[in-house]
Amino acid sequence: MTKSVAIDRTGLERVCALVNGKGGVLKTTLTANLGGLLAVSGWHVLLVDFDPQGNLGLDLGYRHQSDDDDGLSMAQSLMFGAPLKPLKNVRPNLDVVPGGSHLDQAAAGLVSLAGKDGQKAKLALAAALSPIAGEYDIIFIDCPPGNEPLQLAALGSAAQIIVPTKTDRGGREGLLQVAKRLESVVDVNPGIDLLGVVIAATSSSARAVQRTVREAIVEAFGTEEVLFENMVRHAEAPAQAVRERGMLVHELEEQVNSGPKWYEVLRGTAKAGPSQPRSAGNVAEDLHRVAQELVARLEAAESRSAS
User: Fold this and answer.
1) pTM for the complete prediction?
2) 116-125, 252-261, 282-291 — which one is most confidently predicted on average?
Protein backbone atom coordinates (compact mmCIF):
# COMPACT_ATOMS: atom_id res chain seq x y z
CA MET A 1 0.00 0.00 0.00
CA THR A 2 1.37 3.42 -1.00
CA LYS A 3 2.08 5.70 1.90
CA SER A 4 0.34 9.07 1.73
CA VAL A 5 2.65 12.06 1.29
CA ALA A 6 2.13 14.83 3.83
CA ILE A 7 2.53 18.49 2.92
CA ASP A 8 2.02 21.63 4.97
CA ARG A 9 -0.93 23.39 3.35
CA THR A 10 -0.64 26.53 5.45
CA GLY A 11 -1.13 29.43 3.05
CA LEU A 12 -2.64 27.22 0.36
CA GLU A 13 -6.20 27.61 1.66
CA ARG A 14 -7.04 30.14 -1.08
CA VAL A 15 -5.45 28.49 -4.07
CA CYS A 16 -8.10 28.31 -6.80
CA ALA A 17 -7.50 26.34 -10.00
CA LEU A 18 -9.51 27.28 -13.09
CA VAL A 19 -9.78 24.06 -15.05
CA ASN A 20 -11.73 22.37 -17.83
CA GLY A 21 -10.74 19.44 -20.03
CA LYS A 22 -11.82 21.51 -23.07
CA GLY A 23 -9.98 24.55 -24.43
CA GLY A 24 -11.59 27.84 -25.42
CA VAL A 25 -13.92 28.14 -22.44
CA LEU A 26 -12.47 31.44 -21.11
CA LYS A 27 -10.23 29.97 -18.39
CA THR A 28 -7.45 32.44 -19.15
CA THR A 29 -9.84 35.38 -19.52
CA LEU A 30 -11.45 34.62 -16.16
CA THR A 31 -8.08 34.07 -14.46
CA ALA A 32 -6.71 37.40 -15.65
CA ASN A 33 -9.84 39.47 -15.09
CA LEU A 34 -10.97 38.02 -11.76
CA GLY A 35 -7.43 38.39 -10.46
CA GLY A 36 -7.26 41.94 -11.77
CA LEU A 37 -10.58 42.93 -10.22
CA LEU A 38 -9.64 41.52 -6.80
CA ALA A 39 -6.27 43.29 -7.01
CA VAL A 40 -8.04 46.60 -7.70
CA SER A 41 -10.19 45.98 -4.64
CA GLY A 42 -7.08 45.68 -2.46
CA TRP A 43 -6.39 41.94 -2.41
CA HIS A 44 -2.79 40.81 -2.94
CA VAL A 45 -3.16 38.38 -5.84
CA LEU A 46 -0.86 35.83 -7.49
CA LEU A 47 -1.72 34.44 -10.91
CA VAL A 48 -0.01 31.22 -12.02
CA ASP A 49 0.08 30.63 -15.77
CA PHE A 50 0.32 26.84 -15.84
CA ASP A 51 -0.25 26.56 -19.58
CA PRO A 52 2.55 25.96 -22.13
CA GLN A 53 0.78 28.43 -24.45
CA GLY A 54 1.40 31.28 -22.01
CA ASN A 55 -1.67 33.23 -23.10
CA LEU A 56 -2.14 34.86 -19.72
CA GLY A 57 0.77 37.09 -20.71
CA LEU A 58 -1.18 38.31 -23.74
CA ASP A 59 -4.14 39.37 -21.59
CA LEU A 60 -1.86 41.18 -19.13
CA GLY A 61 0.50 42.65 -21.73
CA TYR A 62 3.85 41.15 -20.67
CA ARG A 63 4.08 38.29 -23.21
CA HIS A 64 7.40 38.27 -25.13
CA GLN A 65 8.71 41.20 -23.10
CA SER A 66 12.15 41.13 -21.46
CA ASP A 67 10.78 39.87 -18.12
CA ASP A 68 8.73 37.03 -19.66
CA ASP A 69 10.74 33.85 -19.02
CA ASP A 70 8.36 31.60 -21.05
CA GLY A 71 7.68 29.41 -18.01
CA LEU A 72 11.34 28.78 -17.10
CA SER A 73 11.03 29.66 -13.38
CA MET A 74 7.98 27.45 -13.00
CA ALA A 75 9.60 24.56 -14.88
CA GLN A 76 12.76 24.72 -12.75
CA SER A 77 10.68 24.83 -9.59
CA LEU A 78 8.64 21.78 -10.62
CA MET A 79 11.62 19.72 -11.77
CA PHE A 80 14.40 20.79 -9.40
CA GLY A 81 12.70 22.52 -6.47
CA ALA A 82 14.11 25.95 -7.38
CA PRO A 83 12.33 28.92 -5.71
CA LEU A 84 9.54 30.46 -7.75
CA LYS A 85 10.25 33.97 -9.04
CA PRO A 86 6.96 35.77 -9.77
CA LEU A 87 6.87 38.92 -11.86
CA LYS A 88 6.08 41.63 -9.33
CA ASN A 89 3.42 44.30 -9.79
CA VAL A 90 2.26 43.38 -13.28
CA ARG A 91 -0.62 45.45 -11.99
CA PRO A 92 -0.80 47.05 -8.52
CA ASN A 93 -1.29 44.18 -6.02
CA LEU A 94 -1.00 41.63 -8.85
CA ASP A 95 2.00 39.31 -9.31
CA VAL A 96 2.30 36.60 -11.97
CA VAL A 97 4.28 33.40 -12.49
CA PRO A 98 4.57 33.26 -16.30
CA GLY A 99 3.82 30.17 -18.32
CA GLY A 100 5.12 29.14 -21.70
CA SER A 101 6.93 26.48 -23.67
CA HIS A 102 9.27 25.43 -20.84
CA LEU A 103 6.23 23.84 -19.18
CA ASP A 104 6.17 21.16 -21.88
CA GLN A 105 9.53 19.96 -20.58
CA ALA A 106 8.26 20.19 -17.01
CA ALA A 107 5.24 18.07 -17.91
CA ALA A 108 7.54 15.40 -19.32
CA GLY A 109 9.54 15.57 -16.10
CA LEU A 110 6.38 15.07 -14.04
CA VAL A 111 5.49 12.00 -16.09
CA SER A 112 8.92 10.56 -15.35
CA LEU A 113 8.59 11.43 -11.65
CA ALA A 114 5.10 9.90 -11.50
CA GLY A 115 6.59 6.60 -12.62
CA LYS A 116 8.69 6.60 -9.47
CA ASP A 117 6.50 8.52 -7.01
CA GLY A 118 3.02 9.40 -8.23
CA GLN A 119 2.07 11.37 -5.15
CA LYS A 120 5.19 13.53 -5.28
CA ALA A 121 4.43 14.40 -8.91
CA LYS A 122 0.91 15.46 -7.99
CA LEU A 123 2.25 17.65 -5.18
CA ALA A 124 4.98 19.35 -7.23
CA LEU A 125 3.09 22.63 -7.66
CA ALA A 126 1.92 22.63 -4.03
CA ALA A 127 5.56 22.30 -2.96
CA ALA A 128 6.55 25.18 -5.26
CA LEU A 129 3.79 27.50 -4.05
CA SER A 130 4.01 26.68 -0.35
CA PRO A 131 7.01 28.97 0.47
CA ILE A 132 5.36 32.07 -1.06
CA ALA A 133 1.62 31.38 -0.69
CA GLY A 134 1.38 33.21 2.63
CA GLU A 135 2.29 36.48 0.88
CA TYR A 136 -1.01 36.48 -1.03
CA ASP A 137 -4.70 36.77 -0.24
CA ILE A 138 -5.59 34.51 -3.16
CA ILE A 139 -3.82 32.51 -5.87
CA PHE A 140 -5.43 31.64 -9.22
CA ILE A 141 -4.00 28.89 -11.43
CA ASP A 142 -4.76 28.99 -15.15
CA CYS A 143 -4.69 25.29 -16.09
CA PRO A 144 -4.02 23.84 -19.56
CA PRO A 145 -7.00 21.99 -21.05
CA GLY A 146 -5.49 18.63 -21.99
CA ASN A 147 -2.13 18.27 -20.25
CA GLU A 148 -2.77 15.57 -17.65
CA PRO A 149 0.46 15.83 -15.57
CA LEU A 150 0.13 19.62 -15.28
CA GLN A 151 -3.60 19.39 -14.51
CA LEU A 152 -2.98 16.84 -11.77
CA ALA A 153 -0.25 19.01 -10.24
CA ALA A 154 -2.57 22.02 -10.31
CA LEU A 155 -5.37 20.07 -8.63
CA GLY A 156 -2.89 18.67 -6.13
CA SER A 157 -2.16 22.22 -4.97
CA ALA A 158 -5.66 23.73 -5.04
CA ALA A 159 -8.08 24.15 -2.18
CA GLN A 160 -10.86 25.09 -4.59
CA ILE A 161 -11.53 24.59 -8.27
CA ILE A 162 -13.57 26.79 -10.59
CA VAL A 163 -14.82 25.22 -13.82
CA PRO A 164 -15.64 27.63 -16.65
CA THR A 165 -17.76 26.06 -19.38
CA LYS A 166 -19.41 27.13 -22.59
CA THR A 167 -22.94 26.14 -23.47
CA ASP A 168 -21.77 23.68 -26.13
CA ARG A 169 -21.41 19.94 -25.62
CA GLY A 170 -17.60 20.11 -25.72
CA GLY A 171 -17.50 22.39 -22.68
CA ARG A 172 -19.80 20.07 -20.76
CA GLU A 173 -17.72 17.02 -21.72
CA GLY A 174 -14.62 18.83 -20.49
CA LEU A 175 -16.38 19.49 -17.20
CA LEU A 176 -16.97 15.78 -16.70
CA GLN A 177 -13.28 15.11 -17.38
CA VAL A 178 -12.48 17.43 -14.48
CA ALA A 179 -14.58 15.25 -12.17
CA LYS A 180 -12.40 12.26 -13.12
CA ARG A 181 -9.21 14.28 -12.51
CA LEU A 182 -10.48 15.18 -9.03
CA GLU A 183 -10.77 11.52 -8.13
CA SER A 184 -7.10 11.10 -9.06
CA VAL A 185 -5.81 13.66 -6.51
CA VAL A 186 -7.94 12.81 -3.48
CA ASP A 187 -5.08 10.70 -2.12
CA VAL A 188 -2.82 13.78 -1.80
CA ASN A 189 -5.44 16.51 -1.49
CA PRO A 190 -8.55 15.13 0.23
CA GLY A 191 -9.83 18.61 1.12
CA ILE A 192 -10.13 19.87 -2.45
CA ASP A 193 -13.58 21.25 -3.20
CA LEU A 194 -15.55 22.52 -6.19
CA LEU A 195 -16.19 26.24 -5.69
CA GLY A 196 -18.49 26.31 -8.68
CA VAL A 197 -19.16 26.14 -12.40
CA VAL A 198 -19.24 29.39 -14.39
CA ILE A 199 -21.09 29.50 -17.71
CA ALA A 200 -19.04 31.72 -20.00
CA ALA A 201 -19.00 33.02 -23.59
CA THR A 202 -22.77 32.85 -23.79
CA SER A 203 -25.31 35.10 -25.47
CA SER A 204 -27.77 36.94 -23.24
CA SER A 205 -30.54 35.96 -25.66
CA ALA A 206 -29.77 32.23 -25.64
CA ARG A 207 -31.99 31.50 -22.67
CA ALA A 208 -33.22 28.11 -23.87
CA VAL A 209 -29.63 26.92 -24.42
CA GLN A 210 -28.56 28.23 -21.02
CA ARG A 211 -31.47 26.45 -19.35
CA THR A 212 -30.53 23.17 -21.06
CA VAL A 213 -26.89 23.53 -19.97
CA ARG A 214 -27.85 24.38 -16.41
CA GLU A 215 -30.12 21.35 -16.22
CA ALA A 216 -27.35 19.09 -17.58
CA ILE A 217 -24.82 20.39 -15.06
CA VAL A 218 -27.24 20.05 -12.16
CA GLU A 219 -28.01 16.49 -13.27
CA ALA A 220 -24.28 15.66 -13.47
CA PHE A 221 -23.49 17.01 -10.00
CA GLY A 222 -26.79 16.31 -8.29
CA THR A 223 -27.29 19.88 -7.04
CA GLU A 224 -27.80 23.35 -8.48
CA GLU A 225 -25.53 24.81 -5.80
CA VAL A 226 -22.49 24.11 -8.00
CA LEU A 227 -23.64 26.68 -10.56
CA PHE A 228 -22.58 30.30 -10.29
CA GLU A 229 -25.70 32.43 -10.54
CA ASN A 230 -23.86 34.94 -12.73
CA MET A 231 -22.60 34.25 -16.26
CA VAL A 232 -20.19 35.99 -18.62
CA ARG A 233 -21.63 37.08 -21.95
CA HIS A 234 -19.70 36.70 -25.18
CA ALA A 235 -18.71 39.85 -27.07
CA GLU A 236 -16.24 39.37 -29.90
CA ALA A 237 -15.09 42.99 -30.24
CA PRO A 238 -13.93 43.53 -26.64
CA ALA A 239 -12.50 40.00 -26.51
CA GLN A 240 -10.23 40.81 -29.45
CA ALA A 241 -9.44 44.33 -28.23
CA VAL A 242 -8.25 43.35 -24.76
CA ARG A 243 -5.93 40.60 -26.02
CA GLU A 244 -4.48 42.77 -28.78
CA ARG A 245 -3.83 45.63 -26.34
CA GLY A 246 -2.78 43.56 -23.31
CA MET A 247 -5.57 45.04 -21.23
CA LEU A 248 -8.13 43.70 -18.79
CA VAL A 249 -11.82 44.21 -19.51
CA HIS A 250 -12.36 46.75 -16.74
CA GLU A 251 -9.36 48.70 -18.03
CA LEU A 252 -10.86 48.73 -21.52
CA GLU A 253 -14.20 49.86 -20.08
CA GLU A 254 -12.46 52.78 -18.35
CA GLN A 255 -10.73 53.71 -21.62
CA VAL A 256 -14.02 53.57 -23.50
CA ASN A 257 -15.81 55.71 -20.91
CA SER A 258 -13.04 58.33 -20.85
CA GLY A 259 -12.84 58.60 -24.64
CA PRO A 260 -14.45 61.36 -26.72
CA LYS A 261 -18.17 61.08 -27.42
CA TRP A 262 -19.29 60.76 -31.04
CA TYR A 263 -21.04 64.14 -30.96
CA GLU A 264 -17.91 65.84 -29.62
CA VAL A 265 -15.98 64.50 -32.61
CA LEU A 266 -18.77 65.59 -34.96
CA ARG A 267 -18.72 69.12 -33.55
CA GLY A 268 -14.97 69.31 -33.84
CA THR A 269 -14.49 69.80 -30.07
CA ALA A 270 -12.59 66.51 -29.72
CA LYS A 271 -10.40 64.35 -31.93
CA ALA A 272 -11.46 60.84 -32.80
CA GLY A 273 -9.50 58.19 -30.92
CA PRO A 274 -9.06 54.52 -31.80
CA SER A 275 -12.23 52.57 -32.44
CA GLN A 276 -13.59 51.29 -29.13
CA PRO A 277 -15.96 48.35 -28.56
CA ARG A 278 -19.01 49.74 -26.79
CA SER A 279 -20.01 46.29 -25.51
CA ALA A 280 -17.01 46.26 -23.16
CA GLY A 281 -19.20 47.61 -20.37
CA ASN A 282 -21.54 44.61 -20.55
CA VAL A 283 -18.71 42.10 -20.20
CA ALA A 284 -17.05 44.16 -17.47
CA GLU A 285 -20.33 44.18 -15.53
CA ASP A 286 -20.59 40.39 -15.85
CA LEU A 287 -17.02 39.93 -14.59
CA HIS A 288 -17.63 42.25 -11.63
CA ARG A 289 -20.66 40.17 -10.63
CA VAL A 290 -18.78 36.87 -10.99
CA ALA A 291 -15.93 38.28 -8.87
CA GLN A 292 -18.38 39.31 -6.15
CA GLU A 293 -20.03 35.90 -6.21
CA LEU A 294 -16.64 34.19 -6.09
CA VAL A 295 -15.72 36.07 -2.90
CA ALA A 296 -19.09 35.21 -1.35
CA ARG A 297 -18.64 31.53 -2.21
CA LEU A 298 -15.10 31.52 -0.79
CA GLU A 299 -16.26 33.07 2.46
CA ALA A 300 -19.13 30.59 2.73
CA ALA A 301 -16.79 27.65 2.11
CA GLU A 302 -14.35 28.92 4.73
CA SER A 303 -17.17 29.40 7.19
CA ARG A 304 -18.30 25.80 6.68
CA SER A 305 -14.75 24.55 7.19
CA ALA A 306 -14.38 26.51 10.42
CA SER A 307 -17.64 25.25 11.91
Assistant:
1) 0.88
2) 116-125
